[in-house]
Amino acid sequence: MTRIIAEIGINHNGDISIAKKLIDAATLSGCDYVKFQKRTPEICVPEEQKNKPRQTPWGEIKYIDYKKKIEFGKKEYDEINKYCKEKGIKWFCSVWDHLSVDFCRQYEESIMKIPSALITDLELCKYARENCKTLIISTGMSTEEEITKCVEICKPDVIMHTNSSYPSKVEELNLHYIHHLKEKYPSKDIGYSGHEFGLVTTFAAVALGSIWIERHITLDRTMWGSDQLASVEPIGLMKLVKGIRNIEESLGSKGPRKLFGSELEKRKSLRGE
Predict the structure, then answer these.
(1) Domain 3-271 is found in CATH 3.40.50.720
(2) Across-strand partners of 59?
(3) Per the count of CB atoms within 10 A, which of 44, 76, 101, 170 is most buried?
(4) pLDDT of 197-247, one tens digit each?
(5) Which residue, among 148, 142, 251, 254, has the nearest Cα to 193 in the 3D structure?
């Protein structure tokens, strides 16, 4: 059964009430997980960017201050952890640095994801591998050689095909790469993380064999934030999950053609057999 991740990421804009509404949407839709992003801003923001001005809902502030405002800490994640347990949905994070790995491993759900931007940071990948039960990597913006090296050294459990542009152009999705990953890594789970407009291509990824699916979610695509436009709103999320479950049911099993009960009735009426 396809595992569906609703990526909240930073679309909560630092507001726990928005995060809870997004958790509600994911739960109601039937997603398996919600995912956030965990960073240590002092480490992750390059020095040359820290003091650059940024227009934000809080006015013009330094980029480092903006990153701190949208970063949840222990108080918020304790609340998220409790809320997700109450709602019956699992959660985890993409980890962007060693301290974030340390932070996330204190929670029960031992899944971590390495974002596309960091699969060449093999020290981080290895550290996450050592501190979680399930490691997911994304392949966006990476060469085949970089992906191969990360898989060989860090041994992820799940490899997600993705295009890292937001939103992604349909003609650049290259969904056939899913087949390549399945053939190259038969012992790994292969998935798809989509950043494109619409749902059709994500459905196609399921039909092509992806058994993990991830899409960014938002309450409203017009909200402030860099990831909102390429995200799926609650109604779209419901359609996404329902569509994936319908695809799973429709695929059936491999092998010779089967005659189902409804066809046997039609065969009798049209062929007299």
Answers:
(1) no
(2) 56
(3) 101
(4) 999 999 999 999 999 999 999 999 999 888 999 999 999 999 999 999 999
(5) 142
